[in-house]
């Protein structure tokens, strides 16, 4: 994980909003882009939690917390993984950093058990403030963190994200907006924002989308 990825995780906080996507009873978990291992706190003590983290400094700090840490990118780490081993693969804010998200989402599937799942989050390029900057201010400025993190290689809307998951042969169990805009009742600015969100679409109120996926059986395709 690069420095920009760490900044992005700090930007979105401790990721409590992703607890709702975690399946019950996970015994063997793999997190791709595990940073310093902070997401491990939401799993039982007896969970065998693996991390893949290319940033050496972050990987070294996570070794005290995780069962096993592979300091590498996913493609280089695959040789150390067992087919069908994991109950869950976690991808919090990593897919947008992939040059080929389709290849990645396909490549992780063999390492899931028969009832395994993939959970994670991804920024929403149609977030209201991003559209304001683009349409009204005529600007597209990369930042150190957030939706326009300068290390992001891909950008997604809800529609394109669903298309990606379907193309990669996933069953979408849950996909919903997270880290959403809070609109205050009676506040003029919030009223204007709500008006524009109605026009632009309700998806624009979410900074990110969280998801839970399972792999479709061949007989379901």
Summarize the structure.
The chain is an alpha/beta fold.
Task: Describe it.
- The protein has 221 residues and is of the alpha/beta class.
- The protein has a single domain (3-124, 144-182, 206-220), classed as Rossmann fold (3-Layer(aba) Sandwich), CATH 3.40.50.
- It has seven helices and seven strands.
- It has helices spanning 3-11, 56-62, 74-77, 101-107, 128-136, 158-167, 188-200, and strands at 28-32, 48-52, 68-70, 86-92, 112-123, 170-180, 206-215.
- The chain has a seven-stranded mixed sheet with strand order 3-2-1-4-5-7-6, sandwiched between helices.
- Strand 2, helix 2 (56-62) and strand 3 form a beta-alpha-beta unit.
- The longest helix has 13 residues, at 188-200.
- The radius of gyration is 18 Å and the shape is globular.
């Amino acid at each position: 994980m690069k420095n920009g990825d760490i900044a992005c995780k700090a930007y979105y906080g401790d990721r409590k909003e992703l607890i709702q996507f975690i399946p019950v009873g996970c015994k063997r978990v793999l997190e791709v882009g595990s940073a310093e291992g902070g997401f491990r706190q939401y799993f039982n003590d007896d969970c065998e939690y693996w991390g893949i983290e290319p940033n050496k400094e972050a990987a070294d700090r996570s070794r005290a917390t995780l069962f096993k840490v592979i300091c590498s990118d996913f493609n280089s780490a695959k040789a150390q993984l067992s087919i069908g081993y994991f109950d869950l693969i976690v991808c919090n804010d990593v897919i947008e950093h992939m040059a080929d998200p389709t290849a990645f989402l396909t490549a992780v599937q063999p390492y899931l058990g028969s009832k395994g799942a993939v959970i994670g989050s991804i920024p929403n390029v149609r977030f209201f403030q991003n559209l304001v900057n683009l349409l009204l201010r005529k600007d597209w400025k990369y930042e150190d963190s957030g939706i326009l993190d300068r290390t992001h290689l891909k950008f997604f809307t809800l529609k394109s994200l669903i298309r990606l998951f379907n193309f990669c042969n996933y069953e979408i169990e849950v996909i919903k907006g997270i880290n959403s805009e809070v609109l205050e009742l009676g506040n003029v600015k919030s009223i204007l924002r709500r008006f524009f969100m109605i026009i632009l679409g309700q998806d624009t109120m979410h900074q990110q989308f969280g998801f839970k996926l399972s792999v479709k059986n061949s007989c379901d395709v």
